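User: Run a structure prediction on this.
Assistant: Running it now.
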Amino acid sequence: MVIENPKRDKGKLQPQNGRHNVETNGKLFAAGYVRNSRLILYQLSKDEEGEETEVRREDQDKINRFSTLHQKEKLLQADLKTKEKEKEDLEEVSSELELADEDEKVSYKIGDSFFLLPLPEVQELLAASIEKIDSDVTAVEEKLSELREEMQQLKTALYGRFGRSINLEA
């Protein structure tokens, strides 16, 4: 069945699992859009339909908590990626400075200013910066681990309650 304009259909669109479900004449159909904005319907099997489960307040709280944790996870992953890149850059600079002459003064950025410092002092400052970044990376990885553990517990509880009727995969 092809429907040119889904708004003309008397069915009710319900988003589920990245597609729409359309209910017409008591039958449930899956709907997907193809070229030229045509809506294609095919009948869902009983397994794909899933059971209608009432969403309780505690279920909604778990779903909201999962969503919040998912957003935090995305932010922490971006932060971790930035810190790992910064660490990689500092290690590269440190290895380049090993080739420099010890009597040479090196420009070192502190805040928004650059200072000419002796090479051994710059190497010490870089080592301290690398240690700081290492501890920051470890802290972010620990937070991510705790967050993912809680998300997994919520997933287990929600999938146990709703089965295939809920999609928590990102």
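Confidence is low (pLDDT under 50) at residues 1-18, 32-38.
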